[in-house]
Amino acid sequence: MRDKKGRFLKGHKALGSSKAMIEYIKKNGPWCKGLTKETDERLMKISRITKERMTGKKQSKKQIENRVKARKGFKHSEETKKQLSEINKGKHLSKETIKILDEKVYSKRRNRTYEEIYGIEKAKELKQKFSERMLKNNPYKGKHHSKEVGKRISEKQMGRIPWNKGKEYQQMKGKNHHNWKGGITPINEKIRRSIEYKLWRKAVLEMDNYTCRFCGKGGYLEADHIKSFSDYPELRFVIDNGRTLCKNCHSKTDTYGGKKPYIIRNKPMSVMNIVK
After folding, report:
1. Residue 48's pLDDT band (cuts 50, 70, 90)
2. Residue 29 and residue 41: Cα distance in Å, rounded?
3. Residue 208: its pLDDT value, please?
4. Is the pTM higher than 0.90?
5. Comparing C-alpha atoms, which of 110, 111, 109, 113 is closest to residue 122?
6. Centroid of chain to Cα 271
7. Residue 259 binned pLDDT confidence (cut-offs 50, 70, 90)
8. DSSP labels for 153-207?
């Protein structure tokens, strides 16, 4: 027999067989029932001693592997999840812990792809797992808005201008961007992706009322330079130098897709007539 603190009483006799032990537990319950770390001083002392003994020591690889195997497939119940969420409410990481995580964990993974961190094969497996989880856990999968809701959304969005339209975010441009690779993109792409070029294209389309100059059709339209983009850099953003063309009409022009050789295009008109 044991007392409230779990100590053996005088005259206690050990239960020899497992059957007798099971019968005793059924009648009286387990000896440690009701004992916790907060009430039992002995358990508190053991925890303090283990903390003092294990400070500054690292676990071996085998110990870590055994711990991971033991916890594999383990899931908290809903009650424990609720308790953990209530305990951690309002708690935030301190500045010191954020600095430690930044130095040890985040600095190693920053500006690096999954392939660089985990390797090509493992990166593919991880990406597949993420995609499968997203498909399973997506609450909007197979759901569609009704016609009434679609109309409401469209009416609310009508006339709204996005806050970043026609603006450049300098903090995410050039060297400040996380995908910066030392200025690999050519100048031609930079100009065609710039805001100035987009505004010029919009102005040209509006000037021709979104119709092709040659055939008068609408649909998919392109802004073409009358005097070529490469030969006349000073006229690249001049609106009068632009014209709206459909894809078929644009493909029939002389300068589409570099049809004329670059050497001939840069020669004067007298030489051009001789070549013809």
Report:
1. confident
2. 22
3. 92
4. no
5. 113
6. 56
7. low
8. HHHHHTT---TTTT---GGGSGGGSTT--SS-S-HHHHHHHSHHHHHHHHHHHHH
